């Protein structure tokens, strides 16, 4: 105790008292233990009640039945939004940077993608991810598929009828301006530095690239993904019937005449 003697002159009212008496310590009883899985402390959990809802939308791939659960997720989300949801699956398991993942999550949610696949669900707790996603992860279904699991995952989705599209520049890549996305499309995105590895390129049904005019070799992966997701959305949008367009135009003209 001698090494603490120089602090004896600190007044008792200098700050909050955080010490418990021996009697009080003996009266304390342990509470039921609950696993946190590396998540926030109980205080943070109380301040963020919506986290439970986020976790309900996050289903690890190895623990879910794709044929059933994905359909249920699509129907539930479509009912909540009051609009149809696309059948586009965006696979970002090879992407490392949380800023790219956060921006991609926001883009996929805005354009109504069915699912975003990431390499680790821990990314949603990253502050940089959250800064870019602006809570989009609460509305977009996320699935964890690690890079080592991608070959099996892609093969499974192909068996389910999905066309596996790779965002990659190759000698046989189709230009985005000329490519027509099937309704059930899976978009595989490459790593920021290395792109899509050769073993996965062999599993692709088609590679699509974005035509460029400048000298810089490629776009940022999130920017490329945003262009591809938007083009899919544009192609799949149902055009209005000509009769409905004419009726709206006639209504507008009659209103102007009045």
Task: Please provide a written account of the structure.
It is a single chain. With 258 residues, the protein is α/β, with parallel strands linked by helices. It has a single domain, classed as SPOUT methyltransferase, trefoil knot domain (Alpha/beta knot), CATH 3.40.1280. Helix content is 39%, strand content 10%. The chain contains 10 helices and 7 strands. The chain has helices at 22-27, 42-47, 51-56, 66-81, 98-110, 127-133, 150-159, 198-201, 221-236, 242-257, and strands at 88-92, 115-118, 142-144, 163-167, 174-175, 185-188, 206-209. A 7-stranded parallel sheet has the order 3-2-1-6-4-7-5. Strand 2 (115-118), helix 6 and strand 3 form a beta-alpha-beta unit. Helix 5 (98-110) runs parallel beside helix 6 and helix 5 runs parallel beside helix 9 (221-236). The longest helix has 16 residues, at 66-81. The model is unreliable at 3-20 and 31-68 (pLDDT under 50). Keywords: Acetylation, Methyltransferase, RNA-binding, S-adenosyl-L-methionine, Transferase. Its EC number is 2.1.1.34.
């Amino acid at each position: 105790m001698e090494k603490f003697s120089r602090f004896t002159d600190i007044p008792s009212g200098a700050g909050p008292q955080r010490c418990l008496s021996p009697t009080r310590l003996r009266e304390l009883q342990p509470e039921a233990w609950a696993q946190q899985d590396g998540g926030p402390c109980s205080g943070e959990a109380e301040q963020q009640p919506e986290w439970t809802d986020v976790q309900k939308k996050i289903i690890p791939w190895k623990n879910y039945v794709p044929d059933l659960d994905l359909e249920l997720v699509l129907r539930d989300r479509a009912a909540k939004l009051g609009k149809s949801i696309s059948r586009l699956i965006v696979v970002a398991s090879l992407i490392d940077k949380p800023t790219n993942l956060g921006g991609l999550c926001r883009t996929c949610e805005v354009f109504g993608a069915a699912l975003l696949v990431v390499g680790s669900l821990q990314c949603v707790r990253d502050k940089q991810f959250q800064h870019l996603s602006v809570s989009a992860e609460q509305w977009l279904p996320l699935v964890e598929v690690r890079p080592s699991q991608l070959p099996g995952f892609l093969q499974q989705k192909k068996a389910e009828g999905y066309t596996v599209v790779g965002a990659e520049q190759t000698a046989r890549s189709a230009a985005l301006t000329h490519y027509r996305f099937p309704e059930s499309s899976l978009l595989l995105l490459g790593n920021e530095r290395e792109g899509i590895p050769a073993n996965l390129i062999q599993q692709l049904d088609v590679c699509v690239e974005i035509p460029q005019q400048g000298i810089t070799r490629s776009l940022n992966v999130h920017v490329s993904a945003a262009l591809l997701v938007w083009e899919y959305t544009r192609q799949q949008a149902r055009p209005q019937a000509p009769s409905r367009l004419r009726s709206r135009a006639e209504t507008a003209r009659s209103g102007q005449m009045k």
